[in-house]
Design brief:
The chain has about 325 residues and is mostly beta strands. Helix content is about 5%, strand content about 50%. It starts with a strand and ends in a 6-residue tail after the last strand.
């Protein structure tokens, strides 16, 4: 019984169909029967082409398969501030052996996460990071770069910012080493909460709370230092002391001091001091520039306090585009 169909006959209507049926029966007991029929189906209303496609019988596979395109995952070493991260280590108050030993064991170029969920992290000796290490508090958002592809990605560390507390009154809190980063945690106590010693360079301090030490940050015979977006509070000595340092920037900091000076600068070269707020209530100066100074520049700084805000006692200096807003300023 052959069957034929023609759809969308132009001489009828769209969505119509015409079917031809031819039946042949051969019964030797009776006779042969031949039947030819023509069947035409006319729609009550006209369907759209999409509607016809959804209701029509399958003639051939014309389905379109679509899906979400997933970007390829790239596995490569990550760099932070130009240094390839060797491993990630988490340190908290419950770390066996203590924070000082754990930071040392992490090795060079490690990312050490100081996590505050277990409480304050006490140390009884100076913490000295290995070369290239980054110490970052939990919850810090860091930007990494692929060592091969150069692609950048931000990553938020787990946990909450830790507090590192120096319990030894005659030790520094942290002694920085070459190419180290400190970000998003609190360091308390110490003769200097953070010391950047002689011949150490490429030190970056950002989004830190430095408090409780006799000095906040002390950089001595070092260079290429950045201190930014931090709060530095001192005890009886300077909040920040820079002696014989090169290529150093201090910007967007809040500096609180009750001791000898807010910021003491001597024997420095190429210092950018901008957008800092100095709250000084000690007996000396908010900012004290003393001795040889070459190229001390900055803008947008404010010094508040009841004593001389800005004190210059220099043998040679170049001050470039340096602006201050302060109370009770002297320069003698």
């Amino acid at each position: 019984s052959p069957y034929a169909r023609s759809s969308d006959l132009i001489f009828f209507f769209f969505s119509s169909s015409c079917c031809f049926f031819f039946f042949f029966f051969n019964d030797t007991a009776t006779t042969e029967i031949y039947t030819l029929s023509l069947h035409d189906a006319l729609p009550i209303w006209t369907l759209s082409r999409l509607e016809r496609r959804m209701t029509d019988s399958v003639v051939r596979d014309v389905d379109i398969i679509s899906g979400t395109v997933v970007a390829p995952v790239i596995n490569e070493a990550a760099q932070f501030n130009g240094t390839t991260v060797s491993q990630v280590v988490t340190v908290d108050a419950s770390t066996p052996g203590g924070a000082v030993a754990a930071v040392t064991a992490a090795g060079e170029n490690a990312l050490v996460v100081l996590e505050g969920g277990a409480g304050i992290i006490d140390i009884a000796s100076t913490l000295t990071p290995r070369v290239g290490q980054t110490l970052a508090g939990g919850g810090a958002s860091l930007s990494f770069t692929g060592a091969t592809s150069g692609q950048t990605a931000s990553f938020t560390l787990a946990g909450t910012p830790g507090t590192l507390n120096q319990t030894n009154a005659v030790a520094n809190g942290i002694n920085a080493t070459l190419n180290t980063n400190f970000t998003n945690f609190t360091i308390t106590g110490g003769v200097a909460s953070i010391l950047i010693p002689a011949n150490v360079s490429d030190v970056r301090i950002s989004n830190m709370n430095v408090t409780g030490g006799r000095r906040g940050i002390f950089a001595d015979r070092s260079g290429d230092i950045s201190i930014s977006n931090s709060t530095i509070t001192s005890g009886d000595l300077e909040a920040i002391r820079l002696t014989t340092v090169n290529n150093t920037s201090l910007f967007n900091n809040v500096i609180n001091a009750t001791g000898t000076d807010g910021v003491f600068v001597s024997g420095v070269n190429n210092i950018d001091f901008s957008n800092n707020l100095i709250n000084y209530s000690g007996s000396d100066d908010g900012v004290d520039i003393n001795g040889f100074v070459n190229t001390f520049s900055g803008y947008g700084n404010t010094i508040l306090g009841s004593v001389p805000g800005f004190h210059c006692e220099i043998t040679s200096a170049v001050l470039i585009n340096f602006t201050l807003t302060f109370e009770n300023a002297t320069c003698r």
